[in-house]
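Mods, move this if it's the wrong board.
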Amino acid sequence: MAVVMCFGDSNTHGTPPIVDVLLYDRFGRGGRWPTRLGAHEVIEEGLPGRTAMYDDPVMGPEMNGQGGLKIALKSHGPIDVLVLMLGTNDVKARFTSTPEAVVGGIASLLDIAQSPEMQTRHAGFRILLICPTPVVETGPIKGEFWGGAARSQALAPLYQALAAARGIDFLDAGEVITVSPLDGVHFDEAEHAKLGAAVLAKLETML
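Not the wrong board. Structure tokens:
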């Protein structure tokens, strides 16, 4: 049994497809993918709205994953694997990011995770980088993601190349699951189950 930290945004948190932007909801245990990783001990670090590198002018500076990852890695441990899935919120219109800029944010997170300080603190840990599924501009939050579909569709090969350069494992979630047609961003429970199975299978090759 390994200790696995899942660090991400609302799709790691377990936010259902949004039909009412004022309603907070979350899938229960077993309904969200990090809770479907077999016998492994899982640390869930999913924050709705989290970005790889941006302070959010609407949701707050705490959405920036840079500080969040440092806090998470210093709050828990030792861990054996860090599963990192971010980038969806970085393609929101208000950040005017390019695919390359999104991957730059991911690279900064890897700089933190692979730093001697963090690796020594945890006696070394492996990293699984997951490229999130491309968004679809539909539903009640489509305005926030204007232009995000094209940006997110360009991410997978860049994430894969970055993972290869950093010597870490990679999974393209877009090859496993699709987003809900209700909001174009989040996953329903069936897709969470598929992603959990894919991550578990990947972990078995890493440990």
